[in-house]
């Protein structure tokens, strides 16, 4: 569909081609020959269910790649059916598949001066990917070099008009984008409001009603096949007559989630009942103008305008509307804010059209029906051993990567013809970086400090300056983008604005001064070369979340984020896991001049406490260097806003970042964050208040208990002796516990409620699909048993009758106390016996816990247990299985925490000895869990739907460090 545009681009060349310079490689030596390769076994298990979700043997990676990085790349990016020869099994194959495609296209479209330059490009790109210097966004790894469409972009902006054809086309286009592994955003403000009339005389539905269909579609389609859930952004202008309904949409759905949760429905993220709640697959943002924000400051009125003729339909209080926006964000984290006038003031293509929307994470902002492919550099790779930043090499790598990114547009496929045309004509790119937080800490800079902001701003200025310098050089070789002639005055004006911001940057330390000097030269070249050649790309840089690709590069921090916490969960080569103090901490302490024994003492303290407060020998003025996103010394909300404001003037696009606030934050504080973001010149801003969302595990452990002021227990009726049974009803408010279980692979839930004295009084069995015959039978059975228990039928009667009942499903369970079950009823009543019957009674029936069986094995008294309830083979299987479990556990605990063969080399080199790497308990599976352990409360984050691991923030989304799954970002 874009072949004409591509051919035109290839023919428009003016010069001979690029002369490529070697950065890391040596002539005559292939990068693969300079590393040591090793074979690994990649196994992934959902720790909650025990299910093996992925397994591939003999995969090949360099020995310096972490277990986590190799696992994520194998599971996410290797192509081909598992168990076949077509399956990729080496990082070499993956890199070659991508790099050689880029090289072929570069040759075809005239990017290189000679074959030798093409080879240098191939080797340098291979080296940088092999050594985790940078990474392309996920769609490149998914698609490039495969039989699939060569979709390389992660970010898309769509458009929708006020017609049913356009609205239905929006649904279709989003579906194709999600299928390809990407996300999309759009502005619905062209759709007339529910307060306006249709041509037929009826009243319009309004944009919010059409959001329902799109939300349902996004919830159905797995992005990239089964790689991650769909991601989308919905934007509405602040002057749209339906703005209040839009603002409150997701907050009202949160109320629904609470009500359903309290009624006993499974409303956790990924729960079976959450699908009944609407609008959960999109991030919502309000597009505000300077006029509106000024009215907020003054407390003035503001007009909501008709979509048809622009007339004012309703006058509202601007301050009241801003308070509604902040209140909704306080309740559920939506909507975010996008600052329309600031966005369009930095727009390089205003003659073509305004910027009205963004991608799902708000970093890509450009024309409607356009796309952007992303790549991110690992900043720690440019920190020399003497703790100086290699700005010159950084600039060279930026130029190399931007060249590759531009080449990809030549061969890329696009989900729709309008997107393909706009992208080829404007060639928007989004280079960015990851590991800023780790770099700042390693170099002794506080994230929320003048020095930290100056360093970040200098690096970002050099990033964009180097990118546009190469863009201007490419324009002299293969021609400027097609829309440049029409927009050249505006584009050059924006380049001068970037340069002016660079000139106004005030450096603090030698490091940022050196970087700023290189950036200043780069911007001089941008203006000179741009005046001569024009520019190849309408956009060059953004700061993306770098979720999955951040793990691929073994980054400690994602995007612009600070370090998440001081102690991290780390998988080890050969199996097992440890909690490890961030390796940047001892590096930072040495940079600050601390003696080695003090470094070890501080690291030991952090390993125990998870923070630096009162660490032995650490100066209080250095505390801020070790401030993190979460934990005892969490960075203040305005600290995040100030960092965003420091780097925003040096980006073509915007920043994917959420400003985190504590649970105690007020609506007024959120409103102030939004107002300050506007004043500081941000393009977009999102907030998240801890524990504001219900549809995920909460800090109180996700309790479903109702408010403490709920109806008190019903008065106990005095018993009267009668010749018929009397039903003893449970109190209105009673204790209960829910047990999830599997029998023969079939999943179910058992909820048992008790009287105040602990006696069992009711049970509920959830088994089978809601509404099915089986589910109905289980409900009826549960009611019958519950009523009988309340009429006084002893539990042991039911245990005696239902244990050993045989029917399918039967077999292994996930309950260590009941390893085998002959049926669902057999399992349920064995479990109830263990929980609610005394030892003597159930022992007579041969029902014991795993611990009791173990004690009996140790004392040789296992034979005293009645064996007529189980076959000898079944008992032997149970004994063997239990013994293996104990053995495995004992073996793990017997391994020294500092054993060299199990620790990664970088952990051993941290200089902190055993204090930096310690065993973790079986309940900890991620850094979020570790943080929860140190804070003494459950971490507020969703569970990964793939592996069950608790995710952690990445930009505006979440990423799983167990398997690399994201909540929608690249």
Automatic annotation (TrEMBL):
Catalytic activity: a 2'-deoxyribonucleoside 5'-diphosphate + [thioredoxin]-disulfide + H2O = a ribonucleoside 5'-diphosphate + [thioredoxin]-dithiol
Gene source species: Nostocoides vanveenii
Residue ranges occupied by any TSCPD domain in the UniProt entry: 730-835
Enzyme Commission no: 1.17.4.1
Gene3D superfamilies recorded: 3.20.70.20
Biased composition (Basic and acidic residues): 896-907
Classification via Pfam families: Ribonuc_red_2_N (PF08471), Ribonuc_red_lgC (PF02867), TSCPD (PF12637)
UniProt name for this protein: Vitamin B12-dependent ribonucleotide reductase
Keyword terms of this UniProt record: Cobalamin, Cobalt, Disulfide bond, DNA synthesis, Nucleotide-binding, Oxidoreductase
